[in-house]
Write a structure and sequence with these properties.
The protein contains four helices and ten strands; from the N terminus they run ββαβαββαβαββββ. It is an alpha/beta fold and 162 residues long. The chain has a single domain, classed as Dihydrofolate Reductase, subunit A, CATH 3.40.430. Strand 3, helix 2 and strand 4 form a beta-alpha-beta unit. One of its GO terms (biological process) is folic acid metabolic process. Key enzyme in folate metabolism. Catalyzes an essential reaction for de novo glycine and purine synthesis, and for DNA precursor synthesis. It catalyses: (6S)-5,6,7,8-tetrahydrofolate + NADP(+) = 7,8-dihydrofolate + NADPH + H(+).
Length: 162
């Protein structure tokens, strides 16, 4: 199974200046729980915004730069090559960025979307692609109110390809 996991704002904002634009500890905790023990595929900019391989996961960086190397990570030149590298994993996660999400959705490489909706509009320079909901079925939703740790209302929503 290949899953996109992303946190997006009301206006589909993902980030600004190669960084997240909100801090939502509940989402980070969920991300860690869901992706631990699996391969995480990401574009080079996403990796560089994280800054290091994440513990208890194998990072696969997708880049067209043939000379790119990061100790402890796998490197691939395309999403398809990245998937081929880790095909033995029963659950692969695409964690960004916007171009990786867009390509994976357009090429129908993804079985599931795990989206955290942050119920707020943010100024951003990177946006999640529009989802054609005629191709996806919502299979779960959990809604949460802002609290002392999480500044914004948010929802965890999962979709499966129809």
């Amino acid at each position: 199974m290949i899953t996109i996991i992303a946190a997006i704002a009301n206006n589909n904002a993902l980030g600004k200046d190669n960084d997240l634009i909100w801090h939502l500890p509940a989402d980070l905790k969920r991300f860690k729980k869901v992706t631990s023990g699996h391969h995480i595929l990401m574009g080079r900019n996403t990796f560089e915004s994280i800054g290091k391989p994440l513990p208890n996961r194998t990072s696969v960086i997708i880049t067209r730069n043939n000379d790119y190397f990061v100790d402890g990570c796998l490197i691939a030149n395309s999403i398809e090559d990245a998937i081929e590298l880790v095909k033995e994993d029963d659950h692969i996660f695409l964690i960004g960025g916007a171009q990786i999400y867009k390509q994976a959705i357009e090429k129908k490489l993804v079985d599931k979307l795990d989206i955290t909706y942050v119920h707020h509009d943010f100024e951003a320079d990177v946006f999640f692609p529009e989802i054609d909901l005629t191709q996806w079925k919502e299979v779960s939703r959990e809604d949460f109110k802002a609290d002392e740790k999480n500044k914004y209302n948010y929802s965890f929503v999962s979709y499966e390809r129809i």
